[in-house]
Amino acid sequence: EVIDIAANLNNMVKRLQRAFPQKIIFHHEMDSCYLKVHEPSFEQLMIILLDNAKKYSEETITLQMVEEEQVVRIDVIDKGIGIPEEAQSHVFSRMYRVDKARSRKTGGSGLGLSIAKRIVDRHNGTISVKSKEGVGSTFTVTLPKGGIA
Ligand code: ATP
C-alpha cells in the first residue's frame, strides 16, 4: 500500500519518545513523502534501528529523511559506543552480536538487524552502516520511490 512515511515516522517518534530516556530528533525536508511499502514491516524496520540506537547510545538520536533522485534515504544516527570496523560487515547476519560481554547487559538475540535487512530486501532497498568505535553509528536505509517491484 502507499503510505506517507513522513507522517508515519512523526507518529512513531512521538510514541517511542515516551519510552526513550534520550531525545529523538526527526529531520525531514518534505512535509509528506508517499512510498509504496508494507506499513507494519516499515514500522518494524524503523523500530529495530531506533531501538538499537537507544540500547547502544545515551545521547540524542537523530532520525533523518532525505529525498534523493531515485530513492528516499533514511538515516538513524547515534553517538554511542559504535561498532568496530571488522564487525561492521557482519552485523546484518543472523545471530551475530559484536561482543558478548558488552552486549549481555542490553540483552538481545542478534536477530534485529537480520530482520531489518530482510525487510529492506523485500522492498528492493538497501541498508548499510557507517560507524566508529566510541564515536557512534549511522544506519542508512534507502527505499526506491517506485516501491515494491
Ligand atoms: P536484538 O535482536 O534484540 O536487536 P541485538 O541488538 O543484539 O539484539 P541486532 O539488532 O541484530 O541484535 O544487532 C547486532 C549487533 O550489532 C548488536 O549485538 C550490537 O553489538 C551491534 N549494534 C547494532 N546496532 C548498534 C548501534 N546502534 N550501536 C552499536 N552497536 C550496534
From TrEMBL:
Residues 1-147 form the Histidine kinase domain. It is found in: Cell membrane. It comes from the Bacteria. This is histidine kinase. It comes from Pontibacillus litoralis JSM 072002. The lineage of its organism: Bacteria, Bacillati, Bacillota, Bacilli, Bacillales. The chain holds residues 304 to 452 of 452 of the full protein.
